[in-house]
Design goal:
It is a single chain. This protein is of the alpha+beta class and 142 residues long. A five-stranded antiparallel sheet has the order 1-2-3-5-4. The structure holds adenosine monophosphate. The site of adenosine monophosphate has 14 residues, from loops.
Length: 142
């Protein structure tokens, strides 16, 4: 199994070396918007601890990520008036993983609206900023 690379892009975001549209943080978890969303409000939920993917994450960190993903999903139902939520998580290149710090995709869905293909279009910064604000507010009030 390949080992964790501390210079992956999400590790840099976690260290504050690169910007992100933050929506949630607790002692073990950090969540921010995907800049190439497959649907509006597409959020990535990460452990703060270094973990490449499902195959090496400590069970306690995985449980914290799952609990935070549930919080984000519930808040997204309100913030984006969603009809449902798609949750995805990819492991290793063969499993569809591109960035090698574990992340769970929480994707708000509207009935009858297909998801865009992965990484197909970069969302406008002002839209991402607005969506992050709405989701963070729903998380705080929920
Ligand atoms: P995957 O590793 O296949 O689960 O996908 C990585 C995801 O990260 C894709 O959905 C990208 O759109 C997203 N992504 C890549 N770079 C950034 C970034 N700087 N900020 C937020 N999302 C990103």
């Amino acid at each position: 199994m390949p080992t964790y690379d501390p210079n992956n892009i999400f590790a840099k975001i976690l260290r504050g070396e690169l910007p992100c549209y933050k929506v949630y943080e607790d002692d073990k978890v950090f969540a921010f918007l995907d800049i190439m969303p497959r649907a509006p409000g597409h959020t990535l939920v990460l452990p703060k601890a270094p973990a490449r993917n499902l195959l090496d994450i400590a069970p306690g960190d995985l449980a914290a990520v799952a609990a935070a993903a549930q919080k984000v999903a519930k808040a997204a139902m309100t913030a984006f008036n969603s009809d449902g939520i798609t949750v995805q998580q990819f492991n290793e290149g063969a499993g569809g993983q591109v960035v090698f710090h574990l992340h769970v995709h929480v994707i708000p869905r509207k009935a009858g609206v297909p998801m865009k293909p992965p990484a197909s279009e970069k969302e406008k910064p002002e839209i991402l900023a607005e969506q992050a604000k709405a989701l963070a507010a729903a998380l705080q009030s929920g």
